[in-house]
Amino acid sequence: AALQALKRKKRYEKQLTQIDGTLSTIEFQREALENSHTNTEVLKNMGYAAQAMKKVHENMDLNKIDDLMQDITEQQDVAQEISDAISNRAGFGDEFDEDELMAELEELEQEELNKGMRNVRLPSVPSTSLPSRPGKLLACPFTFLMIKTCSLTRKRAEDEDEMKKLAAWAS
Fold first, then answer.
1. Are residues 87 and 119 in contact, defined by beta-carbon separation less than 8 angstroms?
2. 3-state helix/strand/coil string of the chain
3. pLDDT in tens, 57-112
4. pTM for this structure?
5. At what angle do helices 141-170 and 98-118 cross, to 10 degrees?
6. Are 144 and 119 in contact (CB under 8 A)?
7. Where does the secretion signal sit in this chain (predicted)?
């Protein structure tokens, strides 16, 4: 009886292995069918999409699209020009050339310098001979003019630096 039970057990194990293999094969086939069905649906939908795109593009002409895009670009350029025109400062100051104004300012400064030079009284020429070695600088009216000219030049350079910084900040 024990031998019969052992044989039965082996038959059942063999049947179980066959059934397990059959179930695995059926499951594999089911998955393959599902994938085939999914692929078929995807393919069908891609066909529908292609047909829909053809219908949409039937009424479109590539030349018309190019013309439309050029029109849009031109209108954007016009809008930018209008925006630039509106945002520019209105009023005075724009019609003057900066270089001309600087030249005029330099002329005025030179005239002022020349007026100051006319009122300067020069000392008489010394009758004694000058020392052979250079000594200390003597104070004279020209020293004042040279210092004033240097300070004006330095001020102008500082103003130009300030204008450059302001222009860089503004842009």
1. no
2. CHHHHHHHHHHHHHHHHHHHHHHHHHHHHHHHHHHHHHHHHHHHHHHHHHHHHHHHHHCCCHHHHHHHHHHHHHHHHHHHHHHHHHHCCCCCCCCCCHHHHHHHHHHHHHHHHHHHHHCCCCCCCCCCCCCCCCCCCCCCHHHHHHHHHHHHHHHHHHHHHHHHHHHHHHC
3. 888 888 888 999 999 999 999 999 998 888 876 655 556 788 888 999 999 999 88
4. 0.33
5. 170
6. no
7. none
Single-letter code of the amino acid located at 164: K
Tokens 């030079």 belong to: 117
- Dig out the tokens for 95 from the structure: 């019609």
Within 8 A by CB and 6+ apart from 122, the residues are 141
